[in-house]
Amino acid sequence: MNLVSFNVFRTLGFPDTTVLKPGDIFSHKDLLAGADWVLFPEYWQLNALVYGLNCRVFPSEASYRIGHNKVEMTRAFEVVAPAHTPWTMIEANTPESQDHIWDMMTLPFVAKLPKASMGEGVWLIESTQDWREYCAKTDVLYAQEYLPIDRDARVVVVGDKVVAAYWRMQSEQGFYNNVSKGGAIDTSPVPAVVTDLALRLAQDLGVNHAGFDIALVGQHPFVLEFNRLFGNHGVDSKKLRDAILAYLTANTEPEDNDPEGPQPLWPVAV
């Protein structure tokens, strides 16, 4: 395979891989157009690569489009897995919408910014003061029911395979399960009902590289979000690399040495 990467850290050890800086997209168009795969481009490069140069990118375009915004992500979840999506209200930030959501939601509830990661941009709303502070920080209101959990599961999916699955335990300060916010990793087994949901969501949405965050309430799983680029905590880097390379290899079209295809057999005149 002929690979081009825009992220040296996520493609360490990948064979036959040329690493470029994001700005090099404009000076290496022929190289990019001839690559079997372009790996881990930045979001702003996506349209130019996919539509301008007809590149095949990894992660998939769906992984980028859906994973870029919590609003779009939640709407996608609500379509393909409504029973596994926490009740969520999404509205433009107007005084009327602020009052409407406040009246509809039961305290406590969760509020999020559309674009944030690693636990940033997430609030536990317990009072009108909390709600007012959140509303002052966003153009789009995103309010979600609070789930009574002390952990969630991170399920790392590449293609149609689960590469890793582990629990993220709530931090000492409460509420947050993100390792970046003080949460801890627990490698106890994650039940199949959780990993199966992650695989189904990935398949239904065309997401081929993601860390899904799924909460278990009783025996019922709820998907919270996925991250196209996830942390390496709890993930064997070699296993992840091997899974990506196996996926790329399996989905690379073999070279066609005879573009006209097999020739018909014509009868020979005697």
Report on this structure:
The structure is a single chain. With 270 residues, this protein is α+β, with helices and mostly antiparallel strands. The chain is built from 8 helices and 13 strands. The protein has helices at 29-33, 46-52, 61-67, 70-80, 95-104, 128-135, 192-205, 237-250, and strands at residues 3-5, 17-19, 37-39, 57-58, 88-92, 109-112, 122-125, 140-145, 151-158, 161-169, 184-186, 209-217, 220-227. The protein has a 5-stranded antiparallel β-sheet. A 4-stranded parallel β-sheet has the order 2-1-3-4. Strand 3, helix 2 (46-52) and strand 4 (57-58) form a beta-alpha-beta unit. The longest helix has 14 residues, at 192-205. The protein is globular. The mean pLDDT is 91.
Quote the average pLDDT.
91
Number of DSSP-assigned strands: 13
Encode the helix/strand succession as letters: EEHEHEHHEHEEHEEEEHEEH
Shape: globular
The end-to-end distance, rounded to whole angstroms, is 47 Å
Q: What's the Cα radius of gyration?
A: 22 Å
Structural class: alpha+beta
Largest sheet: 5 strands, antiparallel
Poorly predicted regions are none
State the strand order across the main sheet.
Answer: 11-10-9-12-13
Strand content: 15-25%
Tally of alpha and pi helices: 8
Q: Please give the share of residues in helix.
A: 25-40%
In short:
This protein has about 270 residues and is of the alpha+beta class.
